[in-house]
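Quick board copy: two proteins, each given as sequence then tokens.
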Amino acid sequence: MNRFVKFLVLLAILMVAFFIFQWIRGFFADDVAARFADEEPFSIRFSVQTEEDAKLLSISRLMLYPAEKKAVFYFLNTASHFPDEEDNIANLSAFSADRFRQWVGSGADYNLYFTEKNMGRFIDFLGGMQIFLPQPVVIKDSRYQYPHGIQFLSGQQAMEFSHGAIPLERGSDHLAQLDRLFRTESVILNLLWQLPARQEFLESDGVIPFLYGLADTDLTTEEFGSLLLYFASEEDLDVFVLETPLQFEEDPKNPYEKRLAVNEERCEEHYNKFLQEMRTGALDTASFPMDVQNGTERGGLAGRVKQFLHGSGTEVLYADNYERKPLPESVVLERSGSFSVARRIAYKTGRSRDRVFFLRQPLDISGTFILGEDFQIKDLKY
């Protein structure tokens, strides 16, 4: 064997060794951290399902845009069905239910699945979460009560609040299913909004590996940790929720009920509208309507606040009294599913992050400022 041949053999061995090294390294590399560093968009298929029969309770595509510091959950209502499927989406696997590629323009880069029990344990391990309810919420066959005001939720409570049905009159089950998804979105938004307060805890030894063990995912432990810490450390990250458009159909099995169907023709258009608003900056600058409610015994206070906010360029549609007085602390209640809107209302009203809550509702207002006994006019900002 001459020297040239020996050189080629040695070169081939080195190349094979290099590719094997890179292949092995790939199992331990943190691809998520690299995507954040490179500001590369990517997406995650996210779902929560029942423990016993693996029925989908919620499914969404989480799209992340690091360059814009935006993230959006695009939810499917699992009580709806695709026009070419008889079964509801709840009875499909997460993979089969995911038709987002044709609407958002790309497939999922990763999967992140939880059982309902493990999602509850996830929330418990983080120390629970808080929500604000302007009125009591009644859940069918519930183990817990949900009175008005600021409420602490354990993981089990959060899952019951997310997935339980509200009692409605006959023929309104489809409306109850719409409300269920809005409550699911509210839990996700509140959990992520409150996550920065847990950053130090998340960085403690053993926390990320434990939480990772609760998920069924193709993320590595390091990638899972990078994802969580991104949400916890980027306090100016804006998270949004969207729902796929639906249409009502007659239910052939129940003449008294309507059936929900995914309006696939509008799903891409709906998402593209969000993308356009993100790329033009409209998500951060467009005006939004809100209302002010007086939870104090000081007469006319809501009207004065409305006048001030109007003068600072904020569109306030209503000024009224809060039904349950007195409210000890003022709160911001974001209703449209937007961290950006929540952040701007909090700034205008002088509220700290821990007094901002999300309750997703399809109203003609994007947020509500409820005045509590702690409120002073000097809190407001132009």
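And the next:
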Amino acid sequence: MIPNRFKRIAFMAKAILLSPIFYSMIWSRARRRNKEKPLRILVIPQLTRLGDLVCATPVFAAIKKKYPQSFLAVLTTDKVEGIIRNNPHIDQILLYKSNDLGGLVQKIRSLRFDWSFTLPVSPFGLLLSFVSLIPRRAKLMREGRPASEIMTDWLSNAPLRYYHHTYLPHAYVELLEYIHIHNPGTKKEVYIDSESEKRVAAFLSEHGVRKSDRLVGISIAAGNAIKEWGDEKFTELASHIRTVHRARVLFLGTGKDGDRVDAIRKSLGDDLGCIKATGFSLMELPALLNACTLFIAVDTGPIYIAHALGVPLIDITGPVDIREQPPEDERSILIAPEGVPPSSFVFKKPGSAEERRRAVEAIPVSQVAAGVDDMMKMYG
């Protein structure tokens, strides 16, 4: 089997070498377009990162608010698709599969889009838009581009420069100025379906959780070993929540986190006060988070879902540059290491693994517990 990296290199080479032919086909298609018809728009966010996809949701809402009759499609993967399946602004979700790139190109061509908006800086989305004959192709570009982006960014006829250490969701919506959408805001949106609400309500009822109970959600997983805060620290934090605030603790995660959660609950010796919730799908996760009084995690996808839902949260940011993407408002507390500079960025080359681990390890339980105390005073 050919690795995806080589497939993408071959795809890039083909697009560049055959660019005169593709340009001719695009020009022919564009001149035949009926300008009276509503816009047809494809948005290509980061394909596999949950938090990035949630941060792209203001783009969907802004397009439909300005152009309610437009046709809006979003390209993603089955890994994260569940979080936008209930989004009412999206007319069609297209799934990327590495073993059927040709089929995807044909599908996009058949939908005859007028615009594509590529939110990541990597070349793939722009190349896909180009070979799929989309005439207007907006894309973010960054400082210090690698060769692959320098070789392909010229295919965009609606570029926007992203500057490191600035708020990325602002850049996402700023791209929409090309279609006369100005300052739409960056409020994230996540939608909950009734079936998920029912399942979560039944689950909590089975575990004796009443509507009057304070429920603190904790996600122990980071999706990246470098960002892991550590099970021992989460155990100590859960003990603080139980003893000081008398709140129930809900441990969220996927099936593979189950053994870790079991070990933490055993260490705490508090099965009734600490609930294991590792069997829910991505579609059901928002309903689970929405039931929480407070949610605590490292800077991963569930933090951004909680923020979209307005759930008070504590984001253990570790090495992440808090200027670029983490939520920051009156319902969010960002816990960054004192005296340790950021070393993880949205588009800039990260620092060494040692630097990033140092940032995570520099955050003590007491710092997060103080944030819990503050949030429970305000919202608990």
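Board note added afterward: Residues 204 and 210 are 8 Å apart (CA to CA).
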